[in-house]
Amino acid sequence: MGRLLAQSLGYIYLDSGALYRAVAWQANRVGLDLDDPVALPAWLQEFQPRVTSDAQGFHLAIDGREVDQELRSPQVSRDASRVATLPPVRRWVAEHLRHLAREGGVVAEGRDMGTVVFPEAEVKIYLDASLAVRAARRDKEWQNKADSLPTPEAVMAELASRDRQDRTRAEAPLRLHPEALCLDTTDLKPEEVVQQCLARIRAALSPGQIVEYNQ
After folding, report:
1. Whole-model pTM?
2. In which residue ranges of the chain is pLDDT below 50?
């Protein structure tokens, strides 16, 4: 949804989850001890993946190689959920996102975008769906990206666990901003979600702030 909205508006698309996945993937490659309070911040200071955003999405290159597909595996998703609980990693991701968004015209996706990273955002949208539908969407996303896939029940359990973890973590917990549009997408088609979000955006911004493109 974030990518489609950015395309519709002519904005930059920022995917915070991709940055968490990049940290998890690279930390595993180099054998970093994520529990080391000294080594982790020092490593993050040196970790500078190349980030680009275009009409096709949000892209990361590490050591000169694009790693978009590698970051979408079930294992990296599980590892990213763990690193996302670490305060130094959350601060690192927030700093990168704010730098990328410094000139405005951005659609940013993530669980703390409207409450922590961009609390001044002019439009905040909170998308939700039933656990079963979210699990089915995740399963579809993983098709052809892994040799073995977890069962639907396992995916649902993992999503529920992540929700609990994110809502109860000490730093930047998942919560609904009072100004956010809360939209249940369980029974909505993607184009319906986009249109409802665009309606909210058009109502909030002046015409000069929106450059819409036909898809």
Report:
1. 0.85
2. 214-215
Residue 185 makes CB contacts below 8 A (sequence gap 6+) with 1, 127, 128, 129, 133, 193
Give pLDDT tens digits for 178-195: 999 999 999 999 999 999
Query: Could you write out the DSSP letters of every residue in 143-210?
Result: TTS-SS---HHHHHHHHHHHHHHHHH-SSS-----TTSEEEE-TT--HHHHHHHHHHHHHHHS-GGG-
Number of domains in the chain: 1
- Residue 129, domain CATH: 3.40.50.300
**Any domain includes 212:** no
Range of the domain at 135: 2-204
Bridge pairing between strands 57-62 and 50-54: antiparallel
